[in-house]
């Protein structure tokens, strides 16, 4: 039995899950203490994670310590005799968070939106600073007057007269057709 | 639990119910079958849930019962107000017989405890 478990490493096998202690399952170093291995979990590792899609982790959350002995003994009997407190204690023995706690909103979206807007505004300020102190002014040819002069020159040179710019110019009346 | 290719809904329900009704079922198998059941696109029939709760009773695992009810509630999605009360109504005899409290009775329908953010611990 031991050799079979050792060869499987930390993976939980059917046989291993039935062992009373779980230290053997994890090989030489136990990462789960003496917690019970109770199932397959979400990937076969003897680890604990609260997940809504795999609600039954492979190990119990708590180790079977002395403060749980009494309530675990009571669990073997009639559950009608358990108080609400004992039921809650049993639940927290097996599980860390309830599914409602797991799915509770964290408010992280506020941080995300705030950080995004901050970074956007920061980049805008960097652009303004670059515009003011780094870049040289735009060239003369980008001014309206220069662009008009350039267009006039193209028309005067009769550039592209078949189906381009000059073909759309009425030279007799000096305006666009 | 081999699935045949042409399984009707009735056969599906009966397969899971009879699996949970096995006398020698253990905790590993209950969890495995519940994971299989929850991976389907459905909310389990109340009679399957009752059988699963009975199975939990046989292996003396109370917490697993509550977790099953929570996961069924989660499985109801955005129609939880329609489906979940029906499920609880149907399994109420089982709950009362076994002494199982619903997540609502334990206050687990709303978050009870906050957990420290793992990035803030150290």
Which key features would you list for this structure?
heterodimer; A: 177 residues; mainly alpha; 3 domains; two-stranded antiparallel sheet; 7 helices; 2% strand; B: mainly alpha; Serine Threonine Protein Phosphatase 5, Tetratricopeptide repeat; transmembrane helix (chain A); mitochondrion (chain A); Cytochrome c oxidase subunit 4 (chain A); oxidoreductase (chain A); membrane (chain A)
General description of the model:
The complex is a heterodimer of chains A (177) and B (122). Chain A has 177 residues and is mainly alpha-helical. Chain A contains seven helices and two strands; from the N terminus they run αααααααββ. The longest helix of chain A has 26 residues. Chain A is rod-shaped and about 110 Å long. The N terminus of chain A is likely disordered. Chain B has one domain: Cytochrome c oxidase, subunit Va/VI (Serine Threonine Protein Phosphatase 5, Tetratricopeptide repeat, Alpha Horseshoe). In chain B, 57% of the residues lie in helices and 0% in strands. Chain B contains five helices and no strands. The interface between A and B is large, with 34 and 37 residues.
Secondary structure layout plus pairing:
The complex is a heterodimer of chains A (177) and B (122).
Chain A: H1 2-7, H2 14-17, H3 66-75, H4 84-94, H5 99-102, H6 108-133, H7 144-156, E1 169-170, E2 175-176
Antiparallel strand pairs in A: 1-2
Helix pairs in contact in A: 3-4
Chain B: H1 9-20, H2 27-38, H3 46-58, H4 62-75, H5 80-98
Helix pairs in contact in B: 1-3, 3-4, 3-5
Organism (chain A): Notodromas monacha
Keywords (chain A): Membrane, Mitochondrion, Mitochondrion inner membrane, Oxidoreductase, Transit peptide, Transmembrane, Transmembrane helix
Subcellular location (chain A): Mitochondrion inner membrane
